[in-house]
Design goal:
Layout (H helix, E strand, L loop, with lengths): L8 H11 L14 H10 L6 E2 L7 H10 L8 H18 L5 E5 L2 E7 H4 L12 H13 L3 E8 L6 H21 L7 E5 L12 H7 L1 E8 L3
Parallel strand pairs: 4-5
Antiparallel strand pairs: 1-5, 2-3, 3-6, 4-6
Helix pairs in contact: 1-2, 2-7, 4-6
Length: 223
């Protein structure tokens, strides 16, 4: 079962109301609203989990927020073509970084192992990885007709509750970083799943390293 810690609706509404005052938030060269960004980043402290929309705590709420922000929905053949271009852009930017780009239908998954993004038992993003996340943010800003799920995972070492909290904090810090680089908060969903979804065996050190990860799932926005 997923454990979730949510911002109150009032808090999110206030934050996104301020954030939406930024002129043209989809332009990669848009001027930053530092006050609004600072407020949102402050609210992301700790193990934030949930949708960062000003409508409701649901996928429909996120859709409503994006429609309200003027994000156009993709339809028909345009969906696959749009994701094809976004995949090529991500692969070009992330080549040789240690981040995997996986295509699942019309969905992209970026797998970020913790040995690349975080120190052992740490939730602060490695400074050497900032340039990679900058590249991710640049592509996400260019392809703004997509939603972004940021999910943290852990290996089986340690207590379940501790691993869940650590995975939440790591996911929250990645979200914080992207928002600070002008990614619209309404596009984001943030969650930690602890050790519940391993992709490799926890019986080996190599398997544990694969399981300690943050995944960014990018979906086309179809309204």
């Amino acid at each position: 079962m997923r454990s979730r810690i949510l911002l109150s609706g009032l808090c999110v509404t206030a934050l996104l109301g301020a954030a939406c005052s930024t002129t043209d938030p989809y332009r990669t060269d848009a001027p930053r609203n530092n006050t609004a960004t600072g407020a949102i980043v402050g609210a992301l402290g700790g193990a934030l989990v949930g949708y960062l929309t000003n409508t409701s705590d649901s996928e429909q709420g996120r859709k409503n927020a994006l429609i309200g922000a003027g994000v156009g929905a993709l339809t028909g053949a345009a969906v696959g073509q749009y994701m094809d271009r976004q995949q090529r852009a991500m692969e070009e930017q992330l080549s040789g970084t240690g981040v995997g780009v996986v295509r699942q239908g019309d969905v992209l998954v970026l797998r970020m192992p913790s040995d690349v993004t975080f120190g052992t038992n740490q939730d602060a993003i490695n400074p050497t990885f900032h340039v990679v996340l900058d590249d991710v943010a640049a592509v996400l800003a260019q392809y703004d007709r997509s939603t972004i799920d940021i999910v943290g995972h852990a290996d089986s070492d340690g207590a379940d509750a501790y691993n869940l909290d650590l995975s939440q904090r790591r996911a929250s810090n990645v979200a914080r970083y992207l928002i600070d680089r002008n990614i619209l908060p309404a596009r984001l969903y943030v969650e930690g799943r602890g050790e519940s979804q391993p992709i490799a065996s926890n019986a080996t050190a190599a398997g544990k390293a694969q399981n300690r990860r943050v995944e960014i799932t990018i979906r086309p926005f179809t309204g």
